[in-house]
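User: Sequence in, structure out. Go.
Assistant: Echoing your sequence, followed by the structure tokens.
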Amino acid sequence: MSDLFDAIEPPRQPLAEAMRPQHIDQVIGQRHLLGPGKPLALAFRSGKLHSMILWGPPGVGKTTLARLMARAFDAEFISLSAVFSGVKDIREAIARAEVDRARGRHTILFVDEVHRFNKAQQDAFLPYVEQGLVTLVGATTENPSFEVNSALLSRATVYVLESLTQAELVELFERARAHACPELVFEEDARDRITGFADGDARKLLNLLEQVQTAAATAGVNPVTPAFIEDALSRNLRRFDKGGEAFYDQISALHKSVRGSDPDAALYWLCRMLDGGADPLYLGRRLVRMAVEDVGLADPRALELCLNGCTTYERLGSPEGELALAQAVVFLACAAKSNAVYKAYNAARQFVKQDGSRPVPIHLRNAPTKLMKQMGYGRTYRYAHDEPEGYAAGENYLPEGMSAPGWYEPVGRGLEVRIAEKLARLRELDQEYQAKNSGQTRAGQG
């Protein structure tokens, strides 16, 4: 029996863990923070710890940096995950930190995914950060200005970590290959395929290399070709969090590309989101919003085309429906732009929110009963279709005592040019009517 247990190999350490840097000089990437004279490099050199929030996408070294700090400053390291930890875990961590302080040891409290802690949980360790019992290092993939409470933010420095560049991924690949599988040869295009699949994520790159190593050993393949990479790895899905920062950043980029009249950029961001797994109908709803917010009445066809794109996708699905959405995106980007209705609507909503409940003028009220007719409801209303040019010049449709606000101001682009001309003509008719009536009034008074 003992021989059997002796023959069992101990579990191999995952490559991502085996390759974790043991010294700050071994970290690949984040030169804007770790390069000579940069903020974190200076912090390591000074020997002075401070609380911080490390904000960046997955696989860029947030946990690694926190562990390196504990080693560099000879501090105890306590790690919590906001996904699995609660106030009880925070209290236990603080109790450990107090014991360590009694032994003359400082503690770094690392909180992974700190944005997932609610306000009460964040408040639970705030006093101990203020007292200096622990130095907090929080890691988050979400914008801390939205997810971390202001009291905590004011006591921590936020550092933004960036995705690894292609050159940095290649450097990491070669280092990991030399460590894990030096006998395995990769064609250059195969290596570039793996680093492309990693999409700036160091952990993902190391996991992919480990998968390829296992697949190559099983299949007896050497050298590794691009075709083998395609067979060995599942379809490349770009980094995309449907509820996170990347999602809203890409939506913002799509909207701004449409507003900026760049059809190529708009198509790029649309395809990025579709490729990342965004719901096409969600994108369709956003396109409808762009049609009414940024194109508006400069080209009313935009709204119709976007609604048709959504309907097409509902009926045909992918890929035909996605092409309809792409057509809508290109049309939006190329269409004349106007936010006049959007601005007018917002101004009107704000006015109504702050204003009182003004009564409807008597002449605009409906009179379905005899009593209402006797009270004069609708008596002096002028039916526009019976008026010259189909317009009741001089008529007032706003509540009594409310001056014309002028919220809607057409822009000089697209159909709104014609709309502006039409409104200008109606104002002329109003002025003529008012001049005529004021003349008759003066004559009657004389």
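User: And one key feature?
Assistant: The beta strands are 52-55, 76-81, 107-112, 134-140, 157-160.
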